[in-house]
């Protein structure tokens, strides 16, 4: 028997299952996509990453206190960075009319402890028929309640999804409705289960894939790629830039998504097992149904949009003693403003909390 949701649309049990599975798979793929963009080389401070030297003891890289390897990057006043900030009495997170924001976090490995090494805000607007993904580097320097200034990915490590959401809301003024936490063991499994995906490679991309990531036998041209080959394709960066790598990753994401949409019902059930084993959320099954329906309706008529909240145009990266590799935004209030500009929101003013954190960040970085 068909069920009827609160907005009057009838949804069969079979359609309900497919929609929920598609939502979960979409969340897995999106979060995995962000993860790929952040893991192509080891953190020079911790040694973590995909490089053969990963896990090596880098110590403090010979840096003195507060010193950075990037001469253009500010240094950090560590004592001031650790001081707590009292929340302004008039603080409230901005409500973006027509938009609902979801936080997708990717955790490396099979458990859900540790750092959130990938973070994306997924913003949905039913009326405008838009789905926008806003990514941000895991090493972005932010204020974390109870800790002081540090890396964005440390919030999940220190306080789970609740503290991660609070950190996003306070630093970027984004009201998070729900979250999804995903680990990344599922990406190659999903690609292989759908029978691989077809992508067009340049000769330079193919050469780098097999030289750097062991995708042996891959050549330039249009090919059906398996899970490991798709992962290698998404990791390619050194032949051009992060922007090109971002294009490659979203080419792969949409190729997978298109393949998933055309699968048989039996395949959905198999994918459901993979997806649910690698994800959890605070969203109820009922709300997942409504959300999945909205997202799929939009993506049937609109392109998935992607923006970068922080990039080389509005930040500096450096390795700083005591923090390791960090990304320091030039102006935190401008990050929040830029987000609204990309969504087409006019007349936005950063919240009192964002302005307070931005002012303290300038002091911490000696700007």
Overview of the structural elements:
This protein is an alpha+beta fold and 367 residues long. The protein has helices at residues 13-38, 78-81, 154-172, 186-193, 203-213, 227-235, 242-261, 265-277, 285-299, 332-343, 352-364, and strands at residues 3-4, 10-11, 100-107, 116-125, 130-135, 141-144, 148-151, 176-183, 197-201, 221-225, 279-281, 305-308, 315-320, 324-329. The protein is built from 11 helices and 14 strands. The strands form 5 sheets. It has a 6-stranded mixed sheet with strand order 11-8-3-4-5-12. Strands 1-2 form a two-stranded antiparallel ribbon. It has a two-stranded antiparallel ribbon with strand order 6-7. Strand 13 (315-320) and strand 14 (324-329) form a beta hairpin. The longest helix has 26 residues, at 13-38.
Strand and helix map with partners:
Layout: E1 3-4, E2 10-11, H1 13-38, H2 78-81, E3 100-107, E4 116-125, E5 130-135, E6 141-144, E7 148-151, H3 154-172, E8 176-183, H4 186-193, E9 197-201, H5 203-213, E10 221-225, H6 227-235, H7 242-261, H8 265-277, E11 279-281, H9 285-299, E12 305-308, E13 315-320, E14 324-329, H10 332-343, H11 352-364
Helix pairs in contact: 1-7, 1-8, 1-9, 4-6, 4-8, 5-6, 6-7
